[in-house]
Amino acid sequence: MESLYKLIRDCIARDSKSQRAFYEYYYGFALKTVFRYIYQYDKAADVVNDGFVKIFNSLERFKFKKGDADTERILMGWMKRILINTAIDELRKLQNSPVVVELPEYIWEQTDRCYNADQKILYKELICEIKRLPPSYRKVFNMFVIDGFSHGEIANMLGISEGTSKSALAKAKAQLKRFIENRFAEKSYAV
């Protein structure tokens, strides 16, 4: 854990080697987070880079207590919020549905160390199903279910009402339920 504190301190001090190590260590996490919003790999990679610039510029405001075992989890949550806001800003600029492409396989191999093999596969399948949702449902679903934002926060970030956020979430869940039911029905017939 001491190495994480040192890495953060060195990044705040603008040590380029530490920033590179931080970037490389968290790149897969960042790309997977952004890819749930931006489905063009090249554009998602650009958004991740923009997000890391924001992270490095505001890292000194990240509050952590030395010796806190949850520091990495808290750091990743803090970074996720910055990355999601950066992705949403990019979506506002694009104002259209992104082209859906797959992430390179090596990114999935860098899935967070706390997941076992089954969880990695389920995560990947869930992301593939979410990509099928209409963009407005997809954003709300990602923000509420996966990223843990409240409907009030979602409404504020996306410029919609809380009712619209709740409605989009309900429709997204219903559509995902149909996708999952259809997949299980297909698998039952295949067996």
Automatic annotation (TrEMBL):
A Pfam family hit: Sigma70_r4_2
A single BP term in Gene Ontology: DNA-templated transcription initiation
Statement: the UniProt record of this protein carries the keyword Signal: no
Spans through the membrane: none
Domain RNA polymerase sigma-70 region residue range list: 22-95
Keyword Transcription regulation found: yes
RNA polymerase sigma factor 70 region 4 type domain residues: 125-176
Assigned keywords, A-Z: Sigma factor, Transcription, Transcription regulation
PANTHER family linked: RNA POLYMERASE ECF-TYPE SIGMA FACTO (PTHR43133), RNA POLYMERASE SIGMA-70 FACTOR ECF SUBFAMILY (PTHR43133:SF46)
Family, as annotated: Belongs to the sigma-70 factor family. ECF subfamily.
Protein name: RNA polymerase sigma-70 factor, ECF subfamily
Species of origin: Parafilimonas terrae
